[in-house]
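Dear support,

Our group has been running a series of protein-ligand predictions, and this particular one with fe (ii) ion is the one our PI (initials K.S.) wants archived with full inputs and outputs. We had some confusion internally about which version of the output was final, so please treat the block below as the authoritative record. The input we submitted was:
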Amino acid sequence: MPDSYYIEPVQPVLRRFVEDFRNLVDRERGKPGLLESLRAPVERLLDDPGWIDENFRRPRPGETAAWAVYRSQDPDLCIFTMVVPPGEMTKVHNHLTDGWVGLVQGGQLERKFHRADDGSEPGAARLELVAEDPIALGELTPLSYPHDDIHQVVTTSGEPSVSLHVLCNDLGTVERQTFDPNAGTVSDFVSGYTNVDGGSRIGR
Ligand SMILES: [Fe+2]
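Confirmed final output from the archive:
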């Protein structure tokens, strides 16, 4: 199965980003600098986010939508939009990889957490809130596994918030975790993609 684009037509800016990513991975293989090196290509991808059309900005009432834009076969790269309706928020969750998130519509608040326990007790997790920051339109925020990988996103605008995610796995197919910081609990989940049936085909 080849790499998959889910957006038609594939805009040159997107195709160029995937090429840039592939070159970077070849150059940086085994080195720790991939996340920082990725920043400039992600900035170029979001320089004019007009290529992200209405299909990838659609909210799903009562839930967080994740519209796949691109998934690599490897699977070491996925690009998708996350749409959170007004007044709603994601659960506290992790991603188990590195990546960048750029806000392309609306307003968001991001809460970042660190895990304070050693994970030895099944179903239990102690989280500490380490930051709570408004995200500006056009701002890029990093996700870095394992130390800065747990967060929660709240839509603060009257319109749905839309963020473009560029992550170094096939996030929708990865078994990862949600957390309830107040209850001190953790649960496994697989998020899938809103526009991909049987979304677990790549990456498993
Ligand atoms: Fe996230």
